[in-house]
Amino acid sequence: MKPARFAWLLCSLLAICAGCQNAPPILGPPGTMRQQQLNATFHDPYTEPDIGPEVVGGRPREYQKPSAEPVRSRFVWDNWLRR
């Protein structure tokens, strides 16, 4: 086997074995209760009352009062700064 071909094969095998080792597990546990609550707050799928007409009964009891718009706009920035 030619040395260049062997080097290419070795690099390919190393890349395949290394893969995405730092990726979070897809089928793993969803996290602690606090992590799940923060994730649900960040990815709030319910309608916002300040951008359209209010949908009565459209939100679960625990999410009746969504985060204010200034708070929603700072989620990513504050998370990046670890505030």
Task: Describe what this molecule looks like in 3D.
This protein is mainly alpha-helical and 83 residues long. It has a domain at 31-44 and 65-82. 45% of the residues lie in helices and 0% in strands. It has 4 helices and no strands. The protein has helices at residues 3-18, 33-42, 69-73, 75-80.
How do the strands and helices of this protein lay out in sequence?
Layout: H1 3-18, H2 33-42, H3 69-73, H4 75-80
Nutshell version of this structure?
The chain is an all-alpha fold and 83 residues long. It contains 4 helices and no strands. It has helices spanning 3-18, 33-42, 69-73, 75-80.
* Overall shape: elongated
Task: Please state the structural category.
Answer: mainly alpha
Q: Helix share of residues?
A: 40-55%
Enumerate how many helices there are, as a single number. 4
User: Which strand-content bin applies to the residues?
Assistant: under 5%
Give the distance, in angstroms, between the N- and C-terminal Cα atoms: 56 Å
Number of separate strands = 0
| Major sheet description | none
Low-confidence stretches: none
Mean pLDDT: 76
Radius of gyration: 23 Å
Helix and strand run: HHHH
Main attributes?
about 0% strand, 4 helices, about 80 residues, elongated, mainly alpha
